[in-house]
Amino acid sequence: MRALALVCSLNASPTPSSSHRLAEQVMAELGSHGVTGEAVRVADHSVLPGVAQDMGEGDDWPALREKVLASDILVLATPIWLGHPSSVCQRVLERLNADTSETGDDGLPLMYGKVGVVAVVGNEDGAHKVSADAFQGLNDVGFTLAAGAATYWVGEAMHGTDYQDLEETPEAVAGTTRALAANAAHLARLLSATPYPAG
Length: 199
Description:
The chain contains five helices and six strands; from the N terminus they run E-H-E-H-E-E-H-E-H-E-H. By secondary structure, the chain is of the alpha/beta class. The protein has a single domain (2-193), classed as Rossmann fold, CATH 3.40.50.360. Strands 1, 2, 3, 4, 5 and 6 form a six-stranded mixed beta sheet that branches.
């Protein structure tokens, strides 16, 4: 089993990122279930706006898309901005939308059989709303959602503490991340062994 975390921080590397920290924690928990993979910061790449698989010269999405296609589990990690997923997260969902009309040899959309999970961080309310937005987008393009498919941390409203600044991961977050990883790995194995019926 392979997983890919697309980190939708607005900041490119090497700027520290709370979204990246939580994504790496999800990947580490997936690793404890025999799932390998990597976390990729989308802002490190030129992902052009649009709803096509390839927007032409200067578009790095096709290489990221290949990583998505090679994975069994997609972790979409995003901060909360103005109560919504980041604009980078929205762009990823828009680019994934290009594959809704593409089918594999089985006649099913390409993302069928892949598991989607979400990791959310922020200094404001809205983790459930952001998760819901991301869930709907992932499901629309064919991802299957595991039970407990979101882990999140939100700090006190209008406070300056970031998740990356915490000395320890709160046990509630760590426990939720462990459950997410266990459920996602389990579901991905089930879907691999028993795919959806051919279209």
